Each structure stands twice: as structure tokens, then as C-alpha cells.
Amino acid sequence: MMPKYIAFLRAINVGGHSIKMDYLRVLFETLGFSDVETFIASGNVIFASKVKSTKTLEKKIEGCLQEALGYEVTTFIRSTVELASIADYRAFNEADLNGAGNILYIGFLADKPSDEAKQKLISFVTEVDDFHVSGREVYWLRRTLIGESVFSGARLERSFGMQATFRNSTTVRKIAAKYS
């Protein structure tokens, strides 16, 4: 049985870049992947591949999507085992996670951020936004009933000097539960 992976695609169905999930599945199948499925229309693709290197998979997918769509789609691959661990990770206490209006986002990065980048991220902590980094993931807790957040994924990318894509933790947990 081939290992399953989850591709988290940046810039799919946001910012005027609209793509049908059927077409996205076909593109993944043309790359030789099997058992291709999408999970909600925000660029989450689950697939099986003989290729074991996630970096190789990322580059292969990015090249195909660039050619087919005409724009860069940065791709972040996690194995089902990695995703289960990410979904189970507790970056914040239950009271914060369950607070009325609070939302936890998980940001996927290509590489672990430097210590300097992590320190820069900590400088963005406010009563509304809190952050935690674990491996190649950023956990962003937004306390939305306290006030409006001024933080954004673009701000994280600038401070880290690398691209990221964020998903609501509920989405991540649902994917992990279904495929892990």
C-alpha cells in the first residue's frame, strides 16, 4: 500500500484564483498519484504516491500547477502520520482554545523557522493574537471577541522570509481524523 499525503496548497480559491476541485484532482492524477481526493475547496488534496520525498512531491506539484494554472501555487506536503501529530498538538491551554469566538489556525511552512524568525513572531503577540511554533507549523490563536486582529498570513511570511498557508484547526483535525 502506497503512503498517503496531504498537499496544502497556497493561493487556491483566494485572491481571484478560482479552480474547480474536479480539475485539481485531474491535475494530481496526471502526475501519477492515486486515490486523489480534495477536502473542501480551499486547496487541500489527499493522494497516494510511491515517491517518499515530500520535497520532491512539492516541487513536482508546484511545477504542474504553475504550468496548468499560470501562477505559482506553493505546496506544503505532510504525511498522514505527521498530520495526525499536528492535529493532536496542544499549543495553547483548553480554556484559550474553547473561549467564545476564539479560533485556532495552523500555518504550514516549508522549513522550520529560524530562532530569529520565532522571536520576531513573538513580538506580534497581543491580547488578541497569540502564537506558538512547533517544527514546520505555526499555531495562531485569534481571540476574536476581544478585538480585531491586525495580524495576517502575509505579515507572518514577511517576518519569516518564507511562504506559508493557513488552515482552521477544525479543518486540519477533520482531515487527520479521516485519513490518519
Describe the protein's architecture and organization.
The protein has 180 residues and is of the alpha+beta class. It folds into 2 domains: 4-83, SP0830-like domains (Alpha-Beta Plaits, 2-Layer Sandwich); 89-179, Alpha-Beta Plaits (2-Layer Sandwich), CATH 3.30.70. It is built from 7 helices and 8 strands; from the N terminus they run βαββαβααβαββαβα. The protein has helices spanning 21-30, 54-69, 80-88, 94-98, 115-122, 153-160, 169-179, and strands spanning 4-9, 34-38, 44-48, 75-79, 102-109, 129-134, 137-143, 164-168. The strands form 2 sheets. A 4-stranded antiparallel beta sheet has the order 2-3-1-4. Strands 6-7-5-8 form a 4-stranded antiparallel beta sheet. A hairpin with a 5-residue loop joins strand 2 (34-38) and strand 3 (44-48). The longest helix has 16 residues, at 54-69. The radius of gyration is 16 Å and the shape is globular.
Descriptive tags:
180 residues; Alpha-Beta Plaits; 4-stranded antiparallel sheet; globular
Q: List the helices and strands in order.
A: EHEEHEHHEHEEHEH
Major sheet: order of its strands?
Answer: 2-3-1-4
Number of strands: 8
Structural class: alpha+beta
Helix content: 25-40%
Radius of gyration of CA atoms, rounded to a whole number: 16 Å
CATH topology of the largest domain: Alpha-Beta Plaits
N- to C-terminal distance: 14 Å
Oligomer state of the chains in this structure: single chain
How much strand?
Answer: 25-35%
